[in-house]
Amino acid sequence: MEVFLHKICGQPVQPPVSMQLRRCTPEQAPAVYALQNEVRAAMPDPEQFVPDTLENITAYVRNDLCIGAWQGSRLGGYLIVRFCGRSAHNYAAFMDVPRTEWEHWANADSAIVHADFRGNGLQRLMLEAALPLFPKKITHIGATVSPQNQYSLHNALASGFAIVSRREMYGGHDRYLLAKAL
Question: Taking the model in full, what pTM does it have?
Fold first, then answer.
């Protein structure tokens, strides 16, 4: 899916810059991992985002879904969606959803956009690109966001997510749990 960016590094550009939103391959997992670490290192408070290992990212790309925002060979953003089924890793487990319904939930596990490409709605666009690739049985999607990460929280709310609760997750990190019906 081709999208056009109207801002680069926060400044308007003319003509718009083209990016491709496409499913990442396992061979691209190192690029996803590198972008995760680059963006996290530049955050004012890196605790707002709990990083994942290269091994886990590779497994997610292989077994779940990762949409990348590519400008040529440069990865400018990604969205990882996990299909956890009845696993305790399913965010539905933390939202009082009956276990029998967990298989109908997906996790918006992480969304990263490089600072150069922010302000173009890429998180929302990557989610839109991912939705047609979901298994048909998925009816809801859950997400977590640090209350201090106002940019990601705003993007999630603008994408139709609603805050369900607030709790400690990921080894003691304060998080909002969000849900969206599809």
Answer: 0.92
Q: What is the DSSP string of 104-115?
A: GEEEEEEEEE-G
Question: Within 10 Å of residue 31's Cβ, how many Cβ atoms?
Answer: 17
Look at strands 105-113 and 140-145 and give their pairing.
parallel
Across-strand partners of 88? none
* Tens-digit pLDDT profile for residues 78-137: 999 999 999 989 999 999 999 999 999 999 999 999 999 999 999 999 999 999 999 999
Strand residue runs (E) in the chain: 2-8, 11-23, 65-71, 74-82, 105-113, 140-145, 162-169, 173-181
**Distance between alpha carbon 20 and the CA centroid of its chain, in Å?**
16
Of 90, 94, 95, nearest to 105 by C-alpha is 90
Q: Which residue is listed with tokens 């939202």?
A: 95
